[in-house]
Amino acid sequence: MNILASFSIDLIVNSRKVFSMHKKVKLISVIITAVCLAGIVFLSIRLFKTELPVLGDREHQLESFQFLNQDSVVITEKDREGKVAVIEFFFSTCPGICPIMNKNLQPVYETFKDRKDFIILSHTVNPAYDSVAVLKAYSEKIGAYTPVWQLLTGDKKAIYDAARYDYMMNVVDPATDIEDDFIHTEQVALIDQQGKIRGYFDATDEESMKLLIRSIKSLL
What we know:
5-stranded mixed β-sheet; 5 helices; two-stranded antiparallel sheet; 2 domains; Glutaredoxin
């Protein structure tokens, strides 16, 4: 009987050890699986972040600028540096595509308005009329508020040069006289934190704006 009792006790103790070991192995397996999944997610995010191509010459550098926003505050390239930026060109009296563009940019603004690493720079192409006061009233009309959504006015040639040579917007060649020059495009440009052009999007198309939102998220 004593031998049988001792065998039974040893069997119970060994069973508990085996069960405890099984739990440890299962726990280690769970931890390894979790780490592997985290690694896969991290790599997926990193790979997705590199999907957007750099458009144009990789050595292309954006020039410095100085414009006034709707709050009469000077905005320069320093306000854009290190941020993902959406670049737009419009004018306040535009009866056609501009209202549609700014309506479709609203979801973009709403999605990222609380972020400090994102900015929308909307340049007027009619600075002779679109003064700071005009842009202030227009910003209230379309719901564009600083610091994320900047409506900019300033020197016409500087604005047009930025459109053509910095952001390389698809616009017609310049007129001989700057006073006769006029830029009008439905495209907005996406700029990354290093000042590289990562895409152009049709702001009159809602699906294109959804793609823009996804593209911005991939860069942030």
